[in-house]
Amino acid sequence: MTTSSPVDGAAAVDTVDVLIIGAGISGVGAARYLTTEHPAKSFAIVEARDVAGGTWDLFRYPGIRSDSDLYTFGYEFKPWRDKQSIADAPHILDYLHETIDENGLTDLIRYRHKVIAAAWSSADARWLVDIDRTDTGERVQISARWIFCGSGYYDYDDGFSPDFAGRERFTGQIVHPQHWPEDLDYAGKRVVVIGSGATAVTLLPAMADDAEHITMLQRTPTYIIPLPREDALANTLKKVLGDERGYALTRQKNVAQQRLIFELCQRFPKAARRVIRRINESQLPDGFDVDKHFNPPYNPWDQRLCVVPDADLFRTIRKGRASIVTDRIDTFTENGILLESGEELEADIIVTATGLNIKVIGGIDLSVDGRPVALPDTVVYRGMMLSGVPNFALAIGYTNASWTLKIGLLCEYFCKLLGYMDAHGHDSVWAVADPDLPTRPLLDFGAGYVQRALDTLPKQGPQAPWVMSMSYYADRRLLRGDVADDNLRFAKATDRAGVAAGV
């Protein structure tokens, strides 16, 4: 539900209490929490694309799946009922669309609405948001008390692709997974996938049965571990206890399991490396060079571990349908890729699974009272607000666990903050960081896509509430604790009226 009002003599502007940006897993989750916790508040969801689903609809490459189990990647409020624990995109999209339908959100989503800029006025205690309607080409505006930015943290328009020498010489087809052609025919073709992350290890088993042969070309290996696609214990618990109780218990189990594995890898990296190597060796053909192709130079969980359901990658390698080459690219050639070792990989199709570009808050131009907001000059508060930016929340999930675990906690805190402000008559709030607060990069993560973007991101401080925590248990204590602290400043309409009157 929205209302319209004139702004600065212009055409009528839609007015909402909360504007949610993005109709992916974060935005849909925020909308559901608002619906249940603040049913009287008006809100709208704006989505730049023409469908909901975010990541899970944008990426269309073969085999796309979550590398987190859906008992923790799913919402706390909605049980995951499918038998798959490591689920593919169609199952996740079904789950998201069910959430939209069950919570009456369908008519609240405005598709093809791309947010360009948002300007905060302290005098009005409102955001004025500029939006391009990509279907009509017109510019529209929405006035909102709050913005909840659920657009994720990467660029939806372009993935990362290095400037490979000789690229223009290749006579075959070059594809980036973020822009997968619907009509790509790889049957009987030689395919080289450049990369070693989650996308690459998904593509190999998904394409191998149809391709003549598929090769994963990696510069640096990644830690890869097999997990069952179906969680037998979870399915038993749901059968015995029902979907809701079985889901809740499995969620607790998996949260604890994820954290335990992460902590063990951080505390005992050499032992963790040995365990992962033994697992890899047991899954690979005799004589396979494990140390060359599955032995990263960094410690486990310095970057995200890759999960392969039912060991599908290893099975594909054992069958001889796929190969792994660890080397550096010298140049593309007419027929493939020439490596620094002198070997040439012939290919009909090259897939550049080389990663993402980070674009926090979707590249929106923010300003506060006419002053542009430079993200690197801000410090993140409780993992969801930016210092000096009023009534603005952003949703960034975990890099070492399921994304949605953190989003759920952020949405809970967001709704509690709204209730606190209502109870005390406040209409605006912002976080204030001490000018002498020591800061460091927002994400302590070694992945290339993170390292390339650090100088464009907000900062974090050394401790709560200014730290970008990657611990569900620490965040649960922080975000389910007291709503307000000495780092927050609140204002109400009477305060501004007094200032205006010279009181």
Overview of this protein structure:
Helix 5 crosses helix 10 (312-318) and helix 11 (403-424) runs parallel beside helix 13 (472-479). It is globular, with a radius of gyration of 24 Å. Helix content is 30%, strand content 23%. The protein has 503 residues and is an alpha/beta fold. The two termini are 37 Å apart. It has 14 helices and 26 strands. The model is unreliable at 4-10 and 498-503 (pLDDT under 50). The strands form 7 sheets. Strands 1, 2, 3, 4, 5, 6, 7, 18, 19 and 22 form a 10-stranded mixed β-sheet that branches. The protein has a 5-stranded parallel β-sheet with strand order 8-17-9-10-13. The chain has 2 domains: 3-157 and 357-500, FAD/NAD(P)-binding domain, CATH 3.50.50.60; 167-352, FAD/NAD(P)-binding domain, CATH 3.50.50. Strand 1 (3-6) and strand 2 (12-21) form a beta hairpin. Keywords: FAD, Flavoprotein, Monooxygenase, NADP, Oxidoreductase.
Blueprint (SSEs and pairs):
Elements: E1 3-6, E2 12-21, H1 25-37, E3 43-47, H2 55-58, H3 70-73, H4 89-102, E4 109-111, E5 113-121, E6 126-133, E7 139-149, E8 173-175, E9 190-194, H5 198-208, E10 213-218, E11 224-227, H6 232-241, H7 243-267, H8 269-283, H9 290-293, E12 306-309, H10 312-318, E13 322-326, E14 329-332, E15 336-339, E16 344-346, E17 349-352, E18 365-368, E19 371-372, E20 380-381, E21 385-386, E22 392-394, H11 403-424, E23 428-431, E24 440-441, H12 448-451, E25 459-460, H13 472-479, E26 488-491, H14 493-500
Parallel strand pairs: 2-3, 2-7, 3-4, 5-18, 7-22, 8-17, 9-10, 9-17, 10-13, 11-12
Antiparallel strand pairs: 1-2, 5-6, 6-7, 14-15, 15-16, 18-19, 20-21, 23-26, 24-25
Helix pairs in contact: 1-11, 5-10, 6-7, 7-8, 11-13
